[in-house]
Design a protein that fits this description.
- The protein has four helices and eight strands.
- By secondary structure, the chain is an alpha+beta fold.
- It has a single domain (2-170), classed as Transferase(Phosphotransferase), domain 1 (Orthogonal Bundle), CATH 1.10.510.
- The longest helix has 21 residues, at 80-100.
- It starts with a strand and ends with a helix.
Length: 171
Amino acid sequence: FGSVFEGVLADGSRVAVKRVSDSKQVHKLFEAEVVAIISIHHKNLVRLRGFCCPNLLVYEFVANGSLDRWLFDDDKFLDCDARYSIALDIARGLSYLHDGCRTRVLHLDIKPQNILLDEKFRAKISDFGLSRQGELQAMDEMIIRGTPGYMAPEWLQSQVSDKLDTFSFGV
């Protein structure tokens, strides 16, 4: 979907800038990401600080990077209490997306690479490029773009619901 760079704003705050690839398909994902998160604010979701069309998204900077680095890198370690706290943060973020937003948001690609950890190891859900807002859509209206291994079997049965995110979270 794109590259991410660290930047510093004029006020001195650090940000993450995502530069998306230049293609028609990717521009649709860019628009989906902006629409999905422009008005969503929750402590367990990465906050969009701004964007520049056609291909730059500016997010809050999340200091400890993605959860996958902490789970699969031999040089890093998360104790049981930290893992429990991270799981609760992810659950709270998903609950907000599914039930707390004015319009329901399905992330559709929950995986360790899309969970970021702040300086206190609080989890924040990121990468809304695959998300869907509004009424649940029929399968033939959607393109399957999740990550193999994290996709729920319901994808194959044309059943799009918040259970897709719940399945991916459980994996």
